[in-house]
Amino acid sequence: MDCLEDSSSSRRPIIIASNRGPVTFHTDENGDLKFQRASGGLVTALTGMARQIDATWISCGSTAEDKLWSNGSIPLAEEESQINIRFLAPPEEAYFGFYNVISNPLLWFLQHSMWDLPHAPVISKETWSAWNTGYTVINRIFAEAIIQQLFTIASTPLVMLQDYHLYLVANYIRQKLPPRSRPTVLHFIHIPWPGPEYWGLLPPAMRLAILEGLCAVDLLGFQTHDDALNFIRTCESYLPRASVNYKRRRIWYRNHATYARDFPISIDVDAIKKMALSSEVSEYESEICDMTGSRKMILRIDRIEPSKNIVRGFQAFEEMLEIYPEHREDVIFLALLVPSRLEVEEYRDYLDVLMAAAGKVNAKYGSPDWEPVRIVVGENYPKAIAALKNYDVLLVNAIADGMNLVAKEGPIVNQNQGVLILSERAGARQQLESGSIVISPCDIYATAEAIHQALKMPLEQRRDNSEKLRWLIEREDINDWLCKQLDAVSELNL
């Protein structure tokens, strides 16, 4: 990671804070305490940086063993490298309100513009209780833990807050510490930021607390340029006495400058290429090939949640089969779906709806030798990589998505010169539009036409698009995402 050698900001100690941590502990069959590293590019990038500098990661414990272990250093990939992990153990009732009432579904649905406004949200006494005794409490617990960690560090560290769970933390830190003792705070938001008209639906007290929390941050990162502009517009509309500067992408509030920038997150290209060559993935490839046979494959890989727009994907496939019958018996739509937040009623209901939509296609067009839509429910990353290596069409038609890393993983490992169909409301569009077929997520006719176009696209054009996508993704990988944030800290003298 070259930026760690070139940037003075990268040599400062770092405190990372997120709802979930980079590892989880469990007890093995011998009764010994073991840990498992979390997957994903974010963990890879931040632990990669932690190999070279003093780093502490603060998060809520996920298991009883996490809470029992509490605090200490663990080895990274290289035996000589360590990262300090601190697990918080907040009261269960407070955490339930923080996570299951406010973070999900209230903030998640708001930021994905997913509310059914005639019916939701219903902000009740219970919602306010979850805000006052859950969300604010957990954010204060994080702030106090970060401040305690600051007292153990001699130089001024970087504090890197992650996502929508921790919107209030920076302001609590600012309130507790005098100016000279305050760290430089970065906060990266992994999900979309809608325009002010949608934030206007949130109660003013909640909205004000969130905006004041984020305007106590020094460098605020978003997935796309539009998200950053939407944040500035929201501050202009709802934050009294805030002064905004669109050219500099800066908000001045309470004698403090917050800079809003877009840092599109990406994947660990080397790690995913290595996994694609593993024997485990090869075994799953055989399973995928048995499932598809000689037919072309349309693929989607998503969590089961309404924002992913899975139902309209099946409806578009149905319409494509109706308009272009030559594809019948010749293509299979494989959906690898990961259960997500099934404790939330809207997610459970959505699973039923999407299964019915797939069943309709199969009942209408299927035959004894051909099941048009195959759904596999479960979380199996090697199987997902095996499917990504073999798709002819990858459908990413989210209604709203912070980034959608599947859209980046697919082109890196795919061996069929597969075509990417990409929603214009997925964050990945900002980088990958030139090598994709871009569709409006609600337009199932246009999506049906895009699927047909992708299936009939000449090999030379598919190859050109695939090479373009790979070049874009490899140039701006997960390490580039992190380096650009550190470079911005240096350029802005934060």
Could you explain the architecture of this structure?
- The chain has 2 domains: 277 residues, Glycogen Phosphorylase B (Rossmann fold, 3-Layer(aba) Sandwich), CATH 3.40.50; 204 residues, Glycogen Phosphorylase B (Rossmann fold), CATH 3.40.50.
- The longest helix is centred in the N-terminal third of the chain and has 26 residues.
- The protein is of the alpha/beta class.
- The strands form 3 sheets. Strands 5-6-4-1-7-8-9-12-11-10 form a 10-stranded mixed β-sheet, sandwiched between helices. Strands 15-14-13-16-17-18 form a 6-stranded parallel β-sheet, sandwiched between helices.
- The model has no long low-confidence stretch (mean pLDDT 92).
- It is globular, with a radius of gyration of 23 Å.
- The two termini are 21 Å apart.
CATH topology of the largest domain: Rossmann fold
Shape designation: globular
CATH class membership of the largest domain: Alpha Beta
Low-confidence stretches: none
